[in-house]
Design brief:
The structure holds 2 protein chains of 2 kinds. Chain A is of the alpha/beta class. Chain A has 19 helices and 9 strands. In chain A, helix 2 runs antiparallel to helix 16, helix 9 crosses helix 18 and helix 11 packs across helix 19. Chain B is flat, with a radius of gyration of 27 Å. The chains are: A alpha/beta, B mainly alpha.
Chain lengths: ~450, ~325
């Protein structure tokens, strides 16, 4: 055969490929015993907690390695969207119910069989019915599958900083809206931020509004969460008016609409420069993340629900539900070994070694029946934790299923806060979006 | 005998050889161009075409212009267009004014230390937008910000404006940060432009009586025309593409008041999950950038240069 210039590199390449194949063959025996790697992405729990969870699972299952990546909330959900489009999702993803689960659903495995294998055919009894309803929020009509299952749950509420209150001559959280306004004036006079609102973090605008609406019109709020266009009902507009009064009556700080809930707001609150703040049960994780005694024992803080709008009335009922859940992507089905390992890790995250570590660090409230934090807790923390567990049992859902309505609500609540729209006009705008989405 | 032979045309064999040489030359040229063409096709042309096709997919998967019609009826889209144009105009006016003025001071009136000043002015360009956003958020913040502290110190705490929290000022407050970050680049480019002007020309102008403002107005500014048009084009593209500062400082709020086309693409595509609608907005942004740059180029009579001398165009 005549010599051609391109043949030499081609032959060399072929020899190299054969060599590599042979090397892989020799190494085959060793590779068979190598641990299976499961990849995982999430925004929650926080990195130190996630690292401890991974260590606990890997210790229990030495044949499994977990490559976990924790990113900030917004960056995470952007990465999730991009990875969905490019087919580069990890094996397990952290999810919230509703819009993010639905956006990722085409790339997720239905979990029904995995759950049945993990916890038995009657596996649903291990989760509160409200949490299971939330897990399927936004599923297409007739699709009864589960694409995410909760690891932890949360309850929304407000917290007061005792030291800040004491500085303003106050002792207890406000019981009525009028008292909230009066307390805010005293806190401001004492040089403090009365109630910090991270208005630029739209999620918390929605959550504060929803906590008010839970008092003015709970049935319509729950209907609105599932996509029903009921935003212009009197109770929903009444809640929007109260939201607006938080700004006009200077309950929240000046410039609240450009403020960030995290890290700025949480840091100012922990530093005692803020009297009150809309947070939730996850604030208890500071007992493990902070060195400040007031946070470690929670002795410096007290929780309360949005105060009664009328004298003699009741505070808002608790809203809450899934904080973070897990889904298994179709990427995990790339090999039987990875699929098997992924199912094991999934179970450990929801009800096993992983979740136990997260609970021990008071990351949030357990979603799986019977799981509780182990070890001792300061009495004040124990009291708060137990009260959250009770409230979670009766908490109403706190997620808006449709992302377009969710965003429209943020924008219009901000318009009320900025004074560029009346509550009625703002709710009419949300209603128009909800009606368009319902078509 | 044919006409070709009569006219003394070269023998057939020679023609074939020249043709072969030309063919080989074309093939060689095509091979040189091929890598760039493939890269352009894969990384630029294909995404643009894919985005255009995506923008044509309406609700329920129907093909058509539904997304463009929806955009025309969307008030946030209108705000985003207004803000994008505001970004281009305000950013460019201030960046060019500050850039040219400081470059004049540095190049013509600073006896020594020019390099230090150029470096210092360029520093904001190398700071990551997330750090800049955090710093200016704290600077602007009411109740605990640095500017608020200054107002409080002089007894004007109640008069402190919530720059990022008010829809009327949010965009301008972020544009100011952008101007602060990018003016150094404009200074540097104008310094290069001024340094490239022939000294003899300036001496001649001085002899003719062109001094002070007249020298700036009639000699230096026109001679920096190539630099200016280049900066206008670059500044336009930069202002239209600006995303991180806006998203990190206001997320497009409050009440969508600081939304630009770039941030609205992100919100509709990645937050709301309306990827085809986001594609339609991206097409509008692409066309807007193309149109603005074409207008700027035409108005300035071409001439694209970063060194004061025009290297292309009709000017």
């Amino acid at each position: 055969m005549p010599h051609t210039p391109w043949r030499a590199p081609w032959c060399a390449l072929r020899r190299a490929a054969l060599g590599l194949a042979a090397a892989a063959g020799f190494a085959g025996t060793a590779l068979a015993a190598a641990p299976v790697t499961v990849t995982l992405w999430s925004w929650s729990p926080v990195t130190p907690t996630m690292k401890a969870m991974v260590a606990a699972i890997e210790k229990k299952h030495p044949d499994i390695r977990i490559r976990a990546t924790i990113q900030p909330h917004t960056a995470y959900f952007t990465a999730l969207k991009a990875a969905s489009a490019s087919g580069t999702l990890p094996d397990i993803v952290g999810l919230t119910p509703g819009n993010y689960t639905q956006q990722t659903r085409p790339h997720l495995l239905a979990l029904d069989q995995v759950a049945a294998a993990a916890w038995g055919a009657d596996w649903q009894k291990h989760f509160a019915p409200a949490l299971l309803t939330q897990a399927r929020l936004g599923n297409p009509a007739g699709d009864t599958h589960f694409y995410m299952l909760p690891m932890e749950a949360e309850v929304l509420n407000f917290w007061m900083n005792r030291a800040a209150f004491a500085k303003a001559g106050l002792k207890a959280p406000p019981a009525t809206f009028a008292q909230l306004v009066a307390d805010a004036a005293k806190l401001r006079k004492a040089g403090l931020i009365p109630m910090y609102q991270g208005g630029a973090t739209g999620l918390f605008d929605n959550w504060v509004y929803m906590q008010i609406a839970a008092q003015t019109d709970l049935p319509d709020l729950l209907a609105a969460e599932t996509g029903h266009p009921v935003w212009t009902r009197p109770g929903m507009i009444a809640a929007a008016k109260v939201w607006g009064e938080l700004f006009t009556k200077h309950v929240v700080q000046n410039g609240a609409l450009s403020a960030l809930q995290y890290p700025t707001g949480a840091n100012l609150f922990a530093a005692g420069r803020v009297g009150m703040m809309s947070l939730g049960s996850w604030w208890l994780q500071n007992t493990h993340l902070s060195a400040d005694p007031a946070l470690k024992t929670m002795s410096g803080y007290e929780k309360f629900f949005f105060p009664a709008l009328k004298a003699g009335g009741k505070a808002s009922p608790p809203l809450g539900g899934i904080d973070v859940g897990w889904g298994i992507t179709k990427t995990a089905a790339k090999s039987a070994a990875v699929e098997h390992a992924t199912a094991i890790v999934f179970k450990e995250l929801v009800s096993g070694a992983g979740e136990q570590v997260a609970l021990n660090q008071l990351n949030d409230l357990p979603a799986f029946d019977g799981m509780r934090p182990q070890g001792t807790m300061p009495p004040a923390v124990r009291k708060l934790y137990d009260s959250y567990i009770k409230e979670l049992a009766t908490a109403h859902p706190h997620q808006i299923g449709n992302p377009v309505i969710y965003q429209a609500l943020i924008s219009n609540l901000q318009a009320i806060g900025a004074g560029t729209k009346t509550p009625a006009a703002a709710m009419a705008a949300v209603q128009a979006v909800a009606q368009a989405q319902a078509k | 005998m044919s006409a070709a032979v009569q006219a003394g045309a070269p023998p057939r064999r020679t023609v074939r050889r020249r043709g072969a040489v030309l063919g080989a030359g074309r093939l060689e040229a095509a091979l040189y161009v091929l890598p760039a063409a493939v890269l352009f096709g894969v990384f630029i042309a294909e995404p643009i075409v894919a985005n255009l096709l995506s923008s044509m997919i309406g609700p329920h998967g129907r093909a058509g212009l539904a997304n463009y019609r929806a955009a025309l009826a969307d008030p946030v889209f209108a705000t985003a267009i207004e803000n994008s144009l505001l970004w281009v105009v305000v950013s460019l006016v201030f960046e060019i004014a500050i850039g040219f003025a400081l470059a004049l001071l540095i190049e013509l009136y600073l006896p020594r230390g020019r390099a230090i000043f150029r470096t210092l002015l360029f520093l904001p360009m190398v700071i990551t937008p997330s750090v800049i956003a955090l710093v200016f958020n704290t600077l602007y913040a009411s109740d605990y910000g640095l500017l608020y502290g200054a107002f409080r110190a002089v007894g004007l705490a109640d008069a402190f404006p919530s720059l990022l929290g008010a829809p009327s000022t949010a965009s301008l407050a972020i544009i100011a940060v952008n101007v602060w970050q990018w003016s150094g680049f404009f200074v540097l480019m104008y310094c290069v432009g001024l340094a490239a002007i022939d000294r003899e020309l300036l001496d001649a102008a001085a002899i003719d009586g062109a001094r002070g403002w007249r020298r700036v107005r009639h000699i230096l500014w026109p001679l920096c025309g190539g630099t200016t048009i280049s900066l206008v084009v670059l500044g336009t593209i930069q202002a239209l593409q600006q995303f991180p500062l806006i998203y990190l400082m206001t997320e497009g709020g409050p009440a969508d008041s600081s939304q630009t086309l770039a941030t609205y693409i992100f919100q509709t595509g990645f937050v709301e999950g309306q990827m085809h609608y986001a594609s339609a907005i991206a097409v509008v942004l692409f066309l807007l950038a193309l149109a603005l740059v074409a207008i700027e180029y035409r108005l300035a009579g071409g001439g694209f240069s970063l060194s004061g001398r025009e290297v292309a165009g009709r000017g």
